[in-house]
């Protein structure tokens, strides 16, 4: 079928559907929503069989939906209506939810239902749930709906009449007044639900250190206590704040924009507050907690299961700042000192990594210098993984990976990913050539021709397609909550394999032969020579593309053509 994918942003779900539909041999074209005339022109030119809208902030014009079957992916079960469906479900403490694919009509979310799929809502932030449980349900429902449209025989279920058995409930947009936290009265559970329901957008508006800030993300703190609303400590760039009966960690903040002032964006909480932050203790969490120890939230952690080391990390949005890279490198070196034969890197349920931290770079006094510091820190980390020859290293991608984060994964001996992962092994959309030794690792996995296609076309790759072309070695068909345990189990089988020690010995020989043919330092030098020009040339497209991405502005016309 010819499918027009319409969305307000090419977000994670839009990318996953784009990749999954192409895998099924559909002809897919993406259209950014917002310009009705441009949409009508695209429909007239492309002549789609169906329009599929996975994420919309604006309505489809009547002249389009009255002439073409338009399918809307709504993040709520049948009968649920309104623009803040998932936010309300999380804030209300719902544990079971769903996704509905319905036909666009004049009344929002009121069209006939083409497909629906249930999903659970475990205790995680909205963005995590959206990329995982909700995305799994949305893809299943959307693919079924497309099949039903293609059949030409399926009649969608109207949301009225004797055949409709669901309660219809329309709820308004969830405003900041309804998200507000009362630190003196709200228990920790309520605070966490409100923080999770607003993550990563729009955040919860609050007062902090004499200013107004949007709070992004929330994790329970088991030990620290203080006066409700008081800041208690910092950890890994986050701040800990006391509730009425406990405390929570808040990883990111965004200053409220003043009228006529510059746009604001999310930053690590400590970075965002800067000099406004009062003197606070750094409550370090042990990298490898003792049995029974309750250190609470940390963005990096290590544990062992017999001969398997498990080094997990989870950075907001998958972005890795210079500091993130340096701390993860220190943790990796700690793991190398442990008596294991297999080391699993990753294994969390959400993003693996998206590479350098564009928000931190944008906020820096000298973005070019910070870009350089960040990419060299990423290279240091990847180099350490590539140089590991005394054990097998597995990258375990429970969620999405992109750009330098994907290349970090490729530094391992094996790459495993969850079936719902979306991979973007390219840098071009940010106007960059790329580093992280990609000119060594990507061609050796997929071949020079495929590496060229992936980096030039700059399209998302599904987990199934990635396995087919050799970008990953294994796809785990499981839910997001089971991925980490499944990866650990498989790593245990790998460590117990009679061939494991032979593979380690062979790996060392291959690395030595590759080093003689062309040293890793040469790949790094060549890549960074290009990156240096892109970072330190003011008119380089990278700077405008980065700023547009961080501030969520449209990309200037013709800019990508210059990359």
Automatic annotation (TrEMBL):
Gene3D superfamilies to which the protein is assigned, alphabetical: 2-enoyl-CoA Hydratase, Chain A, domain 1, 3.40.50.12230
Domain Formyl transferase C-terminal, residue spans: 175-255
Domain Formyl transferase N-terminal: 36-139
Any one GO molecular function term: catalytic activity
InterPro entries linked: ClpP/crotonase-like_dom_sf, Enoyl-CoA_hydra/iso, Formyl_trans_C, Formyl_transf_N, Formyl_transf_N_sf, Formyl_transferase-like_C_sf, HoxX-like, NiFe-hyd_mat_HypX/HoxX
Database matches in Pfam families: ECH_1, Formyl_trans_C, Formyl_trans_N
Protein's UniProt name: Hydrogenase maturation protein
Organism per entry: Kitasatospora aureofaciens (Streptomyces aureofaciens)
Lineage, broadest ranks: Bacteria, Bacillati, Actinomycetota, Actinomycetes, Kitasatosporales
